[in-house]
């Protein structure tokens, strides 16, 4: 399973990259705004900076909502760096744009996916990644993880190559559950990834090993 970090925060991206387990980055306009990165030129420059700091795919979201606008913007984003994946919303025009980029060999991430039907359309259009938002479904008392399982089943039925990128991850157990369900990728905030490290028995065991070593060497 690939690990993407879901942030536009450069320090956190560098920290995750330094761990050696990072496969990519996802951003969206809200994550950019959270870091105070606003305005077209600043956002473009930030994408370039992120790409210089990682070696995996970097999702950059189009702002245009019409087909022609998405094509123009997506092409410009793809020219920024070979790591860029054009992130396109799940709409009619979005699906047409994903189909276009797929035939052009440009990677895409179909975002704002909340149903199996939408995921099926993304796969038919040739999206590289499909992003079901599990946390936002949980927020409205709908089982986000069940959607991951359903998309996995449908994609496996037909051998679709579109990778399931579980998004809107809120905590560490979401990551573990997505791994059990066969998501191809998770994108998560650093604190959720960090939670995977923790186990009290590891801390207790390490403290004991060190104490015993010191006894033998004092
Ligand atoms: C990533 O691609 C998504 O935009 C992101 O995971 C959404 O997360 P949120 O629901 O926490 O805003």
Name the features:
single chain, about 220 residues, alpha/beta, eight-stranded parallel barrel, 11 helices, about 55% helix, about 15% strand, globular, binds erythose-4-phosphate
Largest sheet: 8 strands, parallel, barrel
Radius of gyration equals 19 Å
First-last Cα distance: 45 Å
Strand segment count: 8
Molecules bound to protein: erythose-4-phosphate
What is the strand content?
Answer: 15-25%
Mean pLDDT: 97
Order of helices and strands: EHEHHEHEHEHEHHEHEHH
Biggest sheet: strands side by side, in what order?
1-2-3-4-5-6-7-8
Q: Helix count, per DSSP?
A: 11
Structural class: alpha/beta
Q: Could you estimate the helical fraction of the residues in percent?
A: 55-70%
Low-confidence stretches: none
Shape: globular
Descriptive notes:
By secondary structure, the protein is of the alpha/beta class. It has 11 helices and 8 strands. It has an 8-stranded parallel β-barrel with strand order 1-2-3-4-5-6-7-8, surrounded by 7 helices. Helix 5 packs parallel to helix 6, helix 6 crosses helix 8 (144-158) and helix 8 (144-158) packs parallel to helix 9. The protein binds erythose-4-phosphate (E4P).
Brief sketch in words of this structure:
The chain is an alpha/beta fold and 218 residues long. It has 11 helices and 8 strands.
How does the SSE layout of this entry go?
Layout: E1 2-6, H1 10-19, E2 24-26, H2 29-34, H3 40-53, E3 57-61, H4 67-80, E4 84-89, H5 92-104, E5 108-113, H6 116-125, E6 129-132, H7 134-139, H8 144-158, E7 163-166, H9 172-181, E8 185-188, H10 190-194, H11 200-216
Erythose-4-phosphate is lined by residues 6, 26, 28, 111, 131, 133, 135-136, 167-168, 187.
């Amino acid at each position: 399973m690939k690990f993407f970090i879901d942030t536009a925060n450069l320090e956190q991206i560098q920290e995750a990259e330094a761990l050696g387990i990072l496969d990519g980055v996802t951003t969206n306009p809200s994550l950019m705004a959270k870091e105070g990165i606003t305005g077209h030129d600043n956002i473009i420059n930030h994408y370039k900076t992120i790409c210089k700091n990682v070696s995996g795919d970097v999702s950059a979201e189009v702002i245009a909502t019409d087909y022609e606008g998405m094509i123009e913007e997506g092409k410009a984003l793809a020219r920024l760096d070979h790591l860029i994946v054009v992130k396109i919303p799940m709409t009619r025009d979005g699906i047409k744009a994903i189909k276009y980029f797929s035939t052009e060999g440009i990677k895409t991430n179909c975002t704002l996916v909340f149903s199996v039907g939408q995921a099926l359309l993304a796969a038919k259009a040739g999206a590289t990644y499909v992003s079901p938002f599990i946390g936002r479904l949980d927020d409205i008392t709908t089982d986000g993880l069940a959607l991951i399982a359903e998309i996995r089943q449908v994609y496996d039925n037909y051998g679709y190559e579109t990778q399931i990128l579980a998004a809107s991850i809120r905590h560490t157990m979401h990551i573990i559950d997505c791994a059990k369900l066969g998501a191809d990728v998770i994108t998560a905030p650093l604190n959720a990834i960090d939670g995977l490290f923790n186990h009290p028995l590891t801390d207790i065991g390490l403290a004991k090993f060190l104490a015993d070593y010191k006894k033998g060497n004092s």
